[in-house]
């Protein structure tokens, strides 16, 4: 659960913005007014860091209501061994034909 304590600061469009709470940050993120690269600091921090490194966004996203990844999309990314062998054979044949064609032109 995001904190309601207003001890966070952001740099938005080159200007310091805050103090805001983690809940405010989530609202701004959902409204697309800030993104994961927005610079963030808590009160007392020594440096600004990207919001993506704070864990605020990731730990508060509700991903339980998303459907699982389809199995089909995972299998489409893999190259099947038979297709890989066919691709290699055609590549080698193409190179041989190209070399033969060039040597025939040079005669």
Kindly describe this structure.
With 107 residues, the chain is of the alpha+beta class. It folds into two domains: 8-60; 75-105. It is built from four helices and four strands, in the order ββαββααα. The protein has helices at residues 22-30, 56-60, 71-77, 81-105, and strands at 8-12, 15-20, 39-42, 49-50. A four-stranded antiparallel beta sheet has the order 2-1-3-4. The longest helix has 25 residues, at 81-105. The chain is elongated. The protein starts with 7 loop residues before the first strand and ends with a helix.
Key words describing this protein structure:
107 residues, alpha+beta, 2 domains, four-stranded antiparallel β-sheet, 4 helices, 4 strands, 16% strand, elongated
Write the layout of secondary structure elements.
Blueprint: E1 8-12, E2 15-20, H1 22-30, E3 39-42, E4 49-50, H2 56-60, H3 71-77, H4 81-105
Antiparallel strand pairs: 1-2, 1-3, 3-4
Average pLDDT figure: 83
What count of helical segments does DSSP give?
A: 4
The biggest beta sheet reads: 4 strands, antiparallel
Tally of structural domains: 2
Low-confidence runs: none
C-alpha geometry: elongated
Kindly report how far apart the N and C termini lie.
Answer: 78 Å
Main-sheet strand order equals 2-1-3-4
* Percentage of residues assigned to helices: 40-55%
Instruction: Give the ordered list of helices and strands.
Output: EEHEEHHH
- How much is the radius of gyration in Å? 27 Å
Query: DSSP strand (E) fraction?
Result: 15-25%
Structural class: alpha+beta
Q: How many beta-strand segments?
A: 4
């Amino acid at each position: 659960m995001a904190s309601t304590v207003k001890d966070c600061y952001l740099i938005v469009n080159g200007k310091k913005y805050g103090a805001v709470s983690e809940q405010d940050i989530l609202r701004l993120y959902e409204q697309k007014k800030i993104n994961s690269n927005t610079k963030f600091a808590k009160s007392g921090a020594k440096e600004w860091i990207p919001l993506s490194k704070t864990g605020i966004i990731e730990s508060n996203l509700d991903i339980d209501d998303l459907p699982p990844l389809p199995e089909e999309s995972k299998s489409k990314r893999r190259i099947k061994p038979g297709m890989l062998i066919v691709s290699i054979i055609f590549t080698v044949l193409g190179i041989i034909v190209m070399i033969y064609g060039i040597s025939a032109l040079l005669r």
